[in-house]
Automatic annotation (TrEMBL):
Gene3D superfamilies (UniProt xref): HybD-like
Xref: InterPro entries: Pept_HybD-like_dom_sf (IPR023430), Peptidase_A31 (IPR000671)
Name this polypeptide is given: Protein frxA
One of the GO BP terms on file: protein processing
CDD domains found in the cross-reference section: H2MP
Transmembrane segments: none
GO molecular function: endopeptidase activity; enzyme activator activity
Amino acid sequence: MRTLIVALGNEVMGDDGVGIKIGRVLKEKGYRVEELGTDIFSLQRVYQGEERIIIIDAVLSENPGEVIHLKGEEVFSRLKAEIRSAHFMGAIEGLKLLMALDERLRSAEIHFVGITIKKIKLGLELSESVERAIPRAVKLVEEIAR
């Protein structure tokens, strides 16, 4: 199954850039990764009909450094109800809109790998708890992509 990994985030906003950093690790390992920053709508431009899409992003939470995995409809229901994407119109709302507009995306298997962050602040460094979560997130994405 062909897989597209979408790395989201803003790397000049501290922990919010963790999705981009994870994406770069995976790209070095040979995976197809597209860095979309905070523009989920660019997905439509880079999507090449892959059967599986894995989105990596930071999510706001009181417990930083956790790695979460959501799949299919759970991506939309849980992220809306329990935690917020770090981007408003959140990446998830944008993805839902794209899927409604582009039937190619509707048939893709959607996964979301989130790394919880406590706050967004200006800076290039990640907090220790978020930095420690990177290897676990990379391993999870690799397992999903198999």
